[in-house]
Amino acid sequence: MSELHIHFGKELELIFDIQPNELTDLWLAKMQQRHAWPLDDAERFYGFNSIEQDRKIATNQLVDCIAVINRYQPIIEKKFTSIDDQDMLNYLHSIFERYHGLLDQQHSEWWQHAPADVQKALAILNISVHRAETVARTNQPRLVCTWWGMPKDSYLPEHVMRRHGRTVHEFGGVYLNYVEIGKTLEELSIDDDHWIGDDAFQPFVRYSADFSVRFYDDIADIAKMDRYFSKHKRWFQNKGITSWQDHRCMPWRYKVASLRFDGDRQKLLSSLAKNQRVTDIYIT
Questions:
Q1: What are the pLDDT digits (tens) for 232-277?
Q2: Is 121 found in the same domain as 188?
Q3: The dihedral sign for the CA sequence 151, 20, 47, 166
Q4: How far is Cα 188 from Cα 200, in angstroms, rounded to an integer?
Q5: Strand-pair partners of 257
Q6: Count of domains in the chain?
Q7: Tens of pLDDT along 11-51?
Q8: What is the reported pTM?
Q9: Where are the beta strands (DSSP E) in 129-249?
Q10: Are 259 and 14 in contact, with CB atoms under 8 Å apart?
Q11: Which CATH number fits the domain that encloses residue 13?
Q12: Are the CB atoms for 130 and 217 separated by under 8 Å?
């Protein structure tokens, strides 16, 4: 069985057993190609600090990004309120989608003319919105590994989605990361997003080497998804989707590996909190 090794800081290594199946074969092929691109952010950890620390980090990131963007051009017209204001976060996410463009479609005049530091601020704005949402909700511990510039042009076959998709996250599970520019039905329902535009809904159908590691257990809130879909039923029908149970809407998590660990979870989380930097990733 193949193993995923992740090194954290100077002293911590975690080993994950990779599941042998057609889903992981697709992911492993991408992982073999990842060396051509740099790791996007080696410190993309969520929920390992105190709630006060994480609130401060999320707030400062958003305020800084907004300032950089608006100094170039004041496109963010709403005054920032707080990370507890979900409508504000939805608005900022809509700004990112509008001016960044869809995945691999950064063709807008604004994006083409914006200087590099402003482009970066817009990209970080998106990450910061998701960080703020995490902090304002459950602040569950996880980490995300993505590779800057790596193409996101491969699609999960429908039969693989149906066979391997699950509606739960498990402690220590490694999952394919959502790579689209937009939101799934699950995310739209959680956010109760009223800024939904023609391109706001982007199903989880593409993948890359990008992955997340979840250090908590959870299950998708199907009832909330059903209510949101019913509320916006005509909007989805115009896209050819007549039910939230369409495979493009299902809140599936795609697990590719499991943590090899049977010790004290709290001690592990404490160790990770002291080593919030990925220093090496390799597969054996």
A1: 999 899 889 999 999 999 999 999 999 999 999 999 999 999 999 9
A2: no
A3: positive
A4: 9
A5: 18, 174
A6: 2
A7: 899 999 999 999 999 999 999 999 999 998 899 999 999 88
A8: 0.86
A9: 142-145, 154-155, 165-166, 168-169, 173-176, 206-207, 211-214, 218-219
A10: yes
A11: 2.40.100
A12: no
Q: Are both 57 and 29 inside the same structural domain?
A: no
Strand partners, 15: 5
Burial class of residue 125 (count of CB atoms within 10 Å of its CB; 0-12, 13-18, 19+) = buried
Tokens 């410190």 sit on residue: 43
d(CA 17, CA 15): 7
Which single residue is written with the structure tokens 């809904």? 201
Could you list the residue range(s) of the whole structural domain that residue 78 is in? 49-139
User: Do residues 157 and 228 both lie within one domain?
Assistant: yes
Q: How far is CA 101 from the centre of its chain?
A: 17
Beta bridge partners, 157, equal none
Q: Are residues 18 and 150 in the same domain?
A: yes
Quick one: 81 and 222 in the same domain?
no
H-type alpha helices, 198-284 = 222-231, 233-237, 265-273
**SS3 assignment, position 147:** strand
Among 110, 139, 168, residue at a domain's last position: 139
SS3 16: strand
Both tokens of residue 254?
């795609």
Same domain, yes or no: 24 and 74: no
Q: Are residues 247 and 269 in the same domain?
A: yes
Last residue of a domain, one of 105, 139, 173: 139
